[in-house]
Design a protein that fits this description.
Length: 481
């Protein structure tokens, strides 16, 4: 991430507007719904509306929870209602000069266009003295970064992608300078902010810079600064937003695979191609970003984390406790086996993270890593076998969901063939025989299934049989080999 040149950041702390707290706590991306909020605005910045119709302010709001969370809250203020903006209205009230209408920024074309321009123009945004100010010339708070080699485009229109939980994604229709329609853009506005690089930005950009088409092409990003008493100099920095090409009208691999399983359609060639794509992704990340040999200490820490995951799972699913002796043998065997080098990986790899793009093949999305892990951990080198295990578990879940929807029928053979084909494709592209790491891969796959068992026990008890059956199958196969 490019550093922002601001040695000190004098951020005026302002109160949270009455309407903001009520509205924030109802949003899907707000994580503290189980307790009373304790919010504080620790800073923010202004953007200029290209058309002068709205005042744009981005609040940085700290929720003082047991584990504090910093939120990015873009708002726009208008003197007239925004046409079609009823669903994005945060508040409206009367002032001496008339009425004021406050909107959720991503839904307002004024904020959307200003954000796009900030990135494409490599612009800067500064601390403001209050929500009614814009670019007052105060300390630098945010900076746009346009991806090298990407043509500049013009804003045409925007809309917000529905259904997201933790971020807000804006879809931009764009055009070239002569008015010709160009590839649409999707810009992810990160709602919860973290110090350090966001792997979704750094990994996607690293793949693109290396010439790989495994991920969507990067358009640009926005970095920001904010106060943080836990940092040595009192300042934290991280990514605020990330834009990349949008691929409309395509399906993710989960939907494609489920549909194939439902009609017993042979999916092995596509599974093999996905293995090839996965190996290419790992190969490019290995060459583009730092990697290192796995040490005995790395192995010991990983195995210990697996043991911890098993204890969590037995607390939720007590019947799993009987596997402890067999699983301990698997852990010991994997610890004594050869391990590949540590490198950057996807980190949360499954069929739902891959798009089937006509004439392009499989395209991988969402490199943010496992959502529950701290951002600092998600940016560390990891084991590529973790991604392989995640995809193997995803094929198994297709078969499991089919069985739940069709009692008495099975897609186990379909999933087994897909798993073999995926591994064959990976070996074909990488030149590395995963069978040399069979014990390690089994340990990672069992670990993923234990994670699934905890999740299903807590959230979807009716699906618990899927990971439990996988744990049984994997342990029995490993101990009988």
């Amino acid at each position: 991430m490019t550093a922002l040149s601001a040695p000190t950041l004098e951020v005026p702390v302002t109160g949270v507007p009455d309407y903001l707290e009520t509205w924030m706590t109802r949003q899907r991306w707000y994580a503290g719904k189980s307790r009373a909020p304790k919010l504080e605005v620790i800073g923010g910045f202004g953007l200029a509306d290209p058309h002068g119709a709205a005042i744009i302010r981005v609040y940085l709001v700290l929720d003082h929870a047991k584990h504090p969370v910093l939120y990015q809250v873009p708002l726009t203020e208008r003197s007239e209602p925004l046409e079609g903006g009823e669903g994005a209205l945060v508040a409206s009230f009367e002032v001496e000069t008339g009425y004021r209408f406050i909107y959720d920024g991503p839904h307002d074309p004024a904020f959307a266009e200003a954000l796009l321009r900030l990135m494409l123009d490599d612009g800067e945004a500064h601390e403001t003295d209050g929500p009614a100010a814009a670019n007052s010339g105060g300390p630098l708070v945010a900076r746009g970064h346009h991806a090298a080699g990407k043509d500049l485009v013009q804003y045409v229109s925007s809309r917000v992608l529905s259904g997201e939980q933790s971020n807000s994604s804006i879809i931009f229709d764009t055009a070239t300078a002569d008015g010709t329609a160009s590839t649409p853009i999707i810009c992810k506005v990160f709602r919860a902010l973290h110090h350090g690089d966001n792997p979704d930005v750094t990994l996607t950009e690293a793949l693109g810079a290396a010439g790989s088409t495994v991920a969507p092409r990067s358009i640009g990003h926005v970095t920001g600064l904010w106060t943080d008493s836990g940092m040595p100099d009192g300042i934290a920095s991280g990514h605020l937003a990330f834009a990349q090409e949008f691929l409309p009208g395509v399906e993710d691999a989960w939907r494609v695979a489920v549909r194939a399983a439902e009609v017993a359609e042979d999916f092995t060639e596509r599974a093999r191609a996905l293995g090839v794509t996965t190996a290419e992704m790992h190969e490019t990340l290995h060459s583009a970003l730092p990697s290192r040999a796995t040490t005995p200490s790395d192995i010991a820490k990983t195995i210990e984390s697996m043991r911890y995951r098993f204890e969590l799972a037995t607390a939720e699913v007590p019947d799993l406790a009987g596997y402890r002796p067999a699983l301990e043998r698997i852990y010991q065997e994997s610890a004594a086996s050869p391990w590949p080098a540590l490198q950057r990986i996807h980190g949360d790899f499954h069929l739902g993270q891959v798009l089937a793009v006509p004439e392009r093949g499989w395209v991988v999305l969402d490199f943010e890593g496992e959502p529950m892990r701290p951002m600092s951990e998600r940016s560390l080198p990891d084991m590529p076998l973790r991604d392989v295990a995640g995809m193997l578990r995803s094929f198994d879940y297709v078969a499991g969901s089919f069985a739940l929807a069709n009692p008495g029928e099975s897609a186990a053979a379909w999933a087994s063939a897909c798993r073999r084909a995926f591994v064959d494709g990976y070996i074909e592209r990488s030149g590395h025989d995963l069978r040399e790491h069979r014990a390690v891969l089994d340990a990672f796959e069992i670990d993923k299934a234990l994670y699934e068992a905890v999740y299903e026990a807590r959230n979807r008890p009716g699906w618990l049989a899927i990971p439990v059956a996988a744990i049984t199958r994997l342990i029995e196969r490993s101990t009988s080999a």
